[in-house]
Amino acid sequence: MWNQTRVTQALQLKLPIIQGPFGGGPSSIKLAAAVSNAGGMGSFGAYSFSPDQIKELVADLRAETKHSFAVNLWIPYQPDSESRVTESQYRDAVGRLQPYYDRVGAVAPTYGSLFRSQSFEQQIEALLEAAPPAFSFVFGVPAPEVLRACRERSIVTLGAATNVDEAIALDDAGVDIIVATGSEAGGHRVSFLHHPDESPANSALIPQVTQAVKAPVVVAGGIADGRGIVAALMWGAEGVQVGTAFLACDESNATAEHKAAIRSDRARHTTLTRAFSGRYARGIKNEFLLDMQPHETSLPAFPYQNFLTQPLRQAAAKAGLSDFQSLWAGQNAPLVSHTKATELLNYLAQDTERTLAKLKSL
Ligand SMILES: Cc1cc2nc3c(=O)[nH]c(=O)nc-3n(C[C@H](O)[C@H](O)[C@H](O)COP(=O)(O)O)c2cc1C
Question: 158 with 70: CB under 8 angstroms?
């Protein structure tokens, strides 16, 4: 049975389908709970949350679903002396952004405010205290004591890999489920051992990862229908994580312009960019992304560029301007057609059955 795997067993799911987390705003309790209540697993991207917000989030999710859900954090980036933005780099960056701030009526953040990231240690403390059913993470491997504490509290861990080395590192550390993320995926390229450019697409990544690790593998990137799920199973995976298709649903917190862009012909044109956050991420091309292309390699690193563009993105969202928002989307965005999360989940399950039946008749 395609829908009974080590992933469904570990997370007690009816379907091996995970709604991917969306950090920085587009996640919603409504979306995560809808997916969890319908037999998949909802996730919530909480990397920008304070410890108290994380505890509140877990309580709110618990109130909405009795089933498994995941809270997602980003393993901290250690800005070295070269990538820590200097005051003169800050002035250059603001100079580059000023015409865009002016167009949307935004004000540049102060230099000091670029150093206000949440403490990962405190986020983890809060997460362990709240003990959600699952903890998913990107950009690295948590310390052994964190993974041990998760095991002690029966928190299932899911770690993302964009190449075989990262998958092996997660497997060796004892992470429960590996979310192998191909270059098709929407949002940030979550590489941590090699340059994001080096990560292959799923047709190359998944067969190699499933061969190299003991832990069950979930495929993320470009999954939008039963064909994608059957391909994932054939490559040896035991589940899928779907991002863009759930992001476009009514229940998500993505802006109306973002959802409209995913549903438009523009969605055929995604690319990797550092323009919005300072880290490579896949999004639909818009004016700001294209204007920043000549500066791609000189933009400040994450989280500084992220904080620098925040007022621009927020003002653009308020004004309904898609050209200055990060329109994260995966390469299969043109396949997205559903608007309700439960309908999408049911469709993914039924389309998998249809595709399997079709294959049998070949
Ligand atoms: C807007 C957006 C935000 C995302 N934020 C996160 C995040 O904070 N943490 C994470 O693990 N994955 C994040 N992702 C990745 C998704 O959870 C998922 O793995 C990915 O979208 C799957 O590829 P697909 O978009 O082609 O379906 C994000 C994706 C998008 C589109």
Answer: yes
